[in-house]
Amino acid sequence: MVDGVAEFRRFMYQTVPDAVRTAARDALEKGAQELVDMIRSLAPVEDGFLLASIGWTWGEPPKGSIALDDIAPAEDPSMRIVVYAGSELAFYARWVEFGTSKAPAHPFFWPAYRAMRSRIKSRITRAINKAIRSL
Question: What is the pLDDT of residue 63?
Fold first, then answer.
């Protein structure tokens, strides 16, 4: 066997994925926080419960909230990040976003998501490429 094959395999199958995973995770967190900040800036404020219920987390959203978006690669479910709104006190988040037969919609999530989507994707791509180049 050629010298260094074991080290090369370890590098390719362990070091590279770990570096890429770390870079992608950091970029996802930063993008999720920016998205949450923009959503909060667009959300209507009446009692503050809706505003306080908007957030992001790794894995499942908190009980009583609705997941507005999540990113979950099939090959690594631990990388699932969820942006959510609503709680037991702000159960009306979906009604505000989409409206009802008696109240008009006041979209706050989807306009922010559409505005930030390409920026977040680009940040993730740049972070992954930078992690690979630095190895």
Answer: 82
Reading the block at residue 113, the tokens are 């998501």
8 A C-beta contact, residue 131 and residue 22: yes
d(CA 73, CA 58): 13
Confidence of residue 70 (pLDDT cuts 50, 70, 90): low
Amino acid identity, position 17: P
Distances (CA, A) of 27 to 20, 24, 34, 54: 10, 5, 11, 19
Number of H helices and number of E strands within the chain?
5, 3
For the entire predicted model, the pTM comes to 0.81
DSSP 89: S
Q: How far apart are CA 126 and CA 132, in angstroms?
A: 10
Average pLDDT, the chain: 84
